[in-house]
Amino acid sequence: MILKVNLSGKIYNLTVANNFIKRALGLMFKSIGENEGMIFYYKPRKIHIHTFFMKFPIDVIFLNEDNTVVDIKRNMKPWSTYQSKKYSCKMIEIKSNPSINIKIGDKLPLNGQL
Question: Are strands 2-7 and 110-111 parallel, antiparallel or unpaired?
């Protein structure tokens, strides 16, 4: 399944990772386009992520149940880790893009949402 999200006027196609295998593999070993990414669904928690085996830096956007941004990790380099500062249940990963102008508290409507 693919969802769409508008980030600073740019539409991203997000592949849904809603099971253990898809979440575990994520973007490891993959190449994606400039307007592609993944969205991960979890039970609410402070999500811990890594970028092992990734080919490019990513921006990570953590969302709560109503798609409000609760944390952002920008320009996360390959072979690093991060734990969100706030509880969230969704996470978007895209290629690092400094022109994306979102902030904590923004609401991101997802087209085709589960």
Answer: antiparallel
